[in-house]
C-alpha cells in the first residue's frame, strides 16, 4: 500500500466499491420450485482477517415495511419471519465467520413470496492496531411466475456485471503499479540523501619534538 494520504484514500475507495459489488440474482422465481437469492460481498484484500454478519429483510407486494427475514452470524442461521419457517436454508459461505457469500435458498416458492428482498452485510476488518467497519446492501425484487422466462433486462444486467468486474480489476492493477512507483521513488530519494551526506574530515595536528 502507498505511504501517502492520496494513495490510501484511493485504495479505500476501491475497497468500498468492491465490497458493494454483488452478483445479481435472478428476478423471477417459479412457483412450487426452489429459488436462490444471491448476495455476494467480497473483500479487496483476502489476507486481512475479518468477521461478518448477514441479515435479510422482506417486504411483500402488499406490505408497507420490511420485516426481518433471516440472520446469519457466528456460523448460526436463524429464520425470523414465520412465513418462511422450514422453507429457508443458508446457501452462503460455509465453515467461516469471514462471510463473503450471503446467499439464501427458498424451498417450495409460493406466490406470496413475491416482493422485495434486501440483503445487508455488516463486516469488521481486524487490522493490528484498529478495526474498520463497513456495510453493504443489495435489494432484489422477485416476481413469482408459473414458468421461467428470461428477458433482455436480465441478460443486460449479467453482461454489465462482468464488465464492471473486469473494469475494477484493471483499476486495482493501476493502483498497485502507482503504489510500487511511489515506494520505489521514495527509496531512491532516501538513497541519494544518504550518498550526498557530507563525510566529516578530521584534521590531526601532531606536535613536533
From TrEMBL:
The record's listing under PROSITE patterns reads: IG_LIKE
InterPro entries for this protein:
Ig-like_dom (IPR007110), Ig-like_dom_sf (IPR036179), Ig-like_fold (IPR013783), Ig_V-set (IPR013106), Na_channel_b1/b3 (IPR027098)
Biological process terms from the Gene Ontology for this record are: cardiac muscle cell action potential involved in contraction; regulation of heart rate by cardiac conduction
Coiled-coil annotated residue ranges, if any: none
What Pfam families does the entry give? V-set
Give the range the annotation lists for the signal sequence. Answer: none
Assigned keywords, A-Z = Cell membrane, Disulfide bond, Glycoprotein, Immunoglobulin domain, Ion channel, Ion transport, Membrane, Signal, Sodium, Sodium channel, Sodium transport, Transmembrane, Transmembrane helix, Transport, Voltage-gated channel
What Gene3D superfamilies does this protein map onto?
Answer: Immunoglobulins (2.60.40.10)
> Organism's domain of life?
Eukaryota
Q: Which family does it belong to?
A: Belongs to the sodium channel auxiliary subunit SCN3B (TC 8.A.17) family.
Q: What is this protein called?
A: Sodium channel regulatory subunit beta-3
The scientific name of the source species is Sphaeramia orbicularis
Amino acid at each position: 500500500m502507498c505511504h501517502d494520504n492520496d494513495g490510501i484514500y484511493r485504495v479505500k475507495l476501491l475497497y468500498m466499491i468492491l465490497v458493494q459489488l454483488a452478483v445479481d440474482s435472478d428476478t423471477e422465481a417459479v412457483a412450487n420450485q426452489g429459488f436462490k437469492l444471491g448476495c455476494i460481498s467480497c473483500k479487496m484484500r483476502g489476507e486481512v482477517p475479518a468477521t461478518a454478519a448477514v441479515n435479510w429483510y422482506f417486504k411483500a407486494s402488499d406490505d408497507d415495511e420490511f420485516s426481518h427475514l433471516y440472520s446469519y452470524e457466528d456460523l448460526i442461521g436463524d429464520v425470523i419471519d414465520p412465513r418462511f419457517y422450514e422453507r429457508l436454508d443458508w446457501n452462503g459461505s460455509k465453515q467461516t465467520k469471514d462471510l463473503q457469500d450471503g446467499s439464501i435458498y427458498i424451498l417450495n416458492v409460493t406466490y406470496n413470496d413475491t416482493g422485495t428482498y434486501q440483503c445487508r452485510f455488516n463486516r469488521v476488518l481486524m487490522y493490528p492496531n484498529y478495526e474498520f467497519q463497513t456495510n453493504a446492501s443489495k435489494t432484489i425484487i422477485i416476481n413469482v411466475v408459473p414458468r421461467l422466462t428470461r428477458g433482455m433486462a436480465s441478460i443486460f444486467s449479467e453482461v454489465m456485471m462482468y464488465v464492471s468486474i473486469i473494469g475494477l480489476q484493471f483499476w486495482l492493477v493501476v493502483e498497485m503499479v502507482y503504489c510500487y512507483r511511489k515506494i520505489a521513488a521514495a527509496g531512491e530519494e532516501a538513497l541519494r540523501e544518504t550518498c550526498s551526506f557530507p563525510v566529516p574530515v578530521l584534521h590531526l595536528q601532531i606536535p613536533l619534538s
